[in-house]
Fold these 3 entries.
Entry 1:
Amino acid sequence: MGRDSKMKRDLWDESHRPWPLPDIPWTMRQTWSNLLFAHYPIQYEELRKVVPKALDLNTYDGMCWIGVVPFQMSGVRLRGLPPLPGTSAFPELNIRTYVTVDGKPGVYFFSLDAANHLAVIGARTLYRLPYWFADMKIRDRGNMIEFNSRRRSNRDIRFACTYQPASKPFRPDSGSFEEWIVERYCFYTLNASGVPFRCDILHEPWTLQQAEVDFMHNTMLSEQGIVLESEEPILHFAKQIEVRAWPLVDPVTNQIRI
């Protein structure tokens, strides 16, 4: 086997996933770069107020957790198609927490802000995700990342910070908090009737670093009615990861949902 073939095989190895992928083709490929994971503790009772009842909340050390995740999206394309001009690279900002449906742990998004209008429309249509169009910039200053976002529909929803890695890269230990927050291979969304859908994803196991952050603005949580237990986040950085996404499926039958 040639070197390129071996690299491709290793990149999309699914043996580390906790359950098999659906027996259907993947639909989208993308690259995530310069990610900050800022995680805030929140009481179960407070989180239960703002997460749909169809999703079981996950806890770690007795607490639920909210993640604020800014990053750069690139290489976005549908299977079998080249990247659409002007839609393949843009900054994004996700607000997320951790849930389970039918025994499969995943991510639930409160919001996803992006700087690309077509990408926002596409993700809302294909994946029923709460995407919002925002004025957003990300700059790589060598070891320092500058990120600034302000939602178009509500200018009070703002986020601005600088962040950088602050340790050597490491793979999270089994059972650790770091593994718990990042090693999740699906996200959940709901239709208008409150019925959950699952989107499976595939990527290599995460490589993280500790992070340092200087926050200038962050109303992403307070403006969405999220009441935290502490304003002090746990911080991690990830340089880059390649991702494939599958169509939305029924969480129990694995059948495609329309």
Entry 2:
Amino acid sequence: MTKTLFTICLWALVAWLCGIWINPVTGWVILTVGLVAMILVSGVQLSQISRWVKNIDEPPPPSVGPWDEVLAPIYRKLRANRLEIDELNRNVESIMLAAGALPDGAITLDEEMAVTWCNPVASEHIGLDMSKDRGFSIFNILRAPEFATYARSEKWKDPVLLHISREGQERSLLVQLTRYGVKQFLIVTRDVTQLEKLETTRKDFVANVSHELRTPLTVLAGFLETVHDMPAPSISDEQREHYYLLMMEQARRMQAIVDDLLTLSTLESSPSGMGEPVRVGDLIETALQQARSLSKDQHVFVVNVNEDLYVAGIESELASGISNLLTNAVRYTPKDGTITVSWYLTEAGTACYSVQDTGIGIASQDIPRLTERFYRVDRGRSRATGGTGLGLAITKHVAMRHNAELNIRSRFGAGSIFSLEFPASRVVTPDDSVA
């Protein structure tokens, strides 16, 4: 505005001087021409400003006279606001990416409890499809009575546990509802299926250990009380010796259970590796000696072992797995039955150790559970033959630590085949150096 007034004053001064030097008419003509020129220039400048207003993201016209003082701060402010908006958009995108990468599910709801957004994990947990479910009530999507009761309460101090079945798969979810913003809600979902299974396994394990140890302890305590309470002359040396033998048997049983538990603990906690080249034929020969001793010449053993076939592994663990399969075959094969032990290289280049028996066999419904700790198809027979119920669980862990597969084929009343198949990458020669 100051520049405009200065320009008008300048034209008026020039016109006044010309009026004095030449004549008044000339002065008025010059003043009129100056004012008209200023109006025309202002019109051009306003036209430039009008075009710029349609695209204010671009810099303003370089020179628009008195409008420069007005447009410059406006443009600086617009530019600062644009930079701030871009920064906010980047922050929002970053937050959305972080929310999408959360290991837990996240769902946002409006004041009517309608879905507005969810991350991929939440979509997987409860089957949300944002292309179809956006704007729909969460109660129409998560149809669990426990959740409806929980969500309609006034406070949500603790999460609610839901058991949801989707596509034939059971899933356990912890669902926490909370308020945020203005009349908005956030749902956080956490998959605790595995934690529930682990907790169930832990409880079963503790119960099974207690049960397995209670029986021999009860027997042992009973005999000790009998020997202690009865007068010495009333017990013959033969009876005393018989009691001692029974007590030793129960003590050995408890010792076997503890040893197997320690073996399992070691397998689960120690790091695994490729190990060293192991001549499995020697391990099988040692296991056969133990099996024949357990059999007491009541079974026929057929042996087909490749003595020159080595695998990379940990010798003590492999010995445990090999021995467990053999002793199980002896325990569950009737007198005069045949046990066939094989160790060979398959056509696919894998190494296979198998134990086939003509024993009592296993029902199909029991096979998937055989490697569970303390699971027995016939508890009475297993205890009678000295089994701890942990042998196949140990063998399964040995297989896993050696990248092998434990395969079980059986038919009730027709015998069984247990096999450990090692991948070709584990087959080595004695001179191989294994990292």
Entry 3:
Amino acid sequence: MRLLFIGDVMGEPGLRAVGLHLPDIRPAYDLVIANGENAASGKGLDRRAYRMLKEAGVDLVSLGNHAFDHKEVYGLLETEPVVRAANYPPGTPGRGWWRLEAGGESLLFVQVMGRVFMDPLDDPFRTLDRILEAEEADYVLVEVHAEATSEKMALAHYLDGRVTAVLGTHTHVPTLDAMRLPKGTLYQTDVGMTGTYHSIIGGEIQTFLARFLTARPQPFRAAEGPARFHATELVFEGGKGVSISPYVWEEP
């Protein structure tokens, strides 16, 4: 099973990069998953952004701390392969995991959100324990949407040997630590952002800079400009992870 995970799609530049590049490379992969929590103008997911990702070839869209910024997401969570963090409190709309099939094999995708410098959700460690006890699949991919690299690494080592791969998202900064952990789980701290890097984590430079200079709230504006497509390639075979490697494409 060859899988491509696309890092946080940020606003119009991110959607454009996915639309321009993914159709060309889509035949090389059995499954494509994208984090789309910033796809709608930089915050949240709406029907237009979801449709653009699906039409480009994305099989499943994950969310994050901006999951519920658009009301349209509630309908998507009810009917479409859209996943929010599994460690939201009981009763939260949607689901935190999804099962995908490709080539006669199954993939269980689970997302959890970190709690360090983030919203105080339920324990992601025990949430994953419960899901892994209840669900079975040939392969398990866990996305950890978290601010602290230490929390992502802690979750990865906690899951080492129990899941096929753990990928981090949220910081919009790609890391060069793609590796195999001691018990075989593939890991990368952050896949990075698909959007314009002439920005401050995808936001307009002047308004984001003003937050630091004035210590006051500023309007949120997603940056414009040429985009980079950041993703991670995963190869699974024989019930285990075979390889992990970052993938980068830059808009001409």
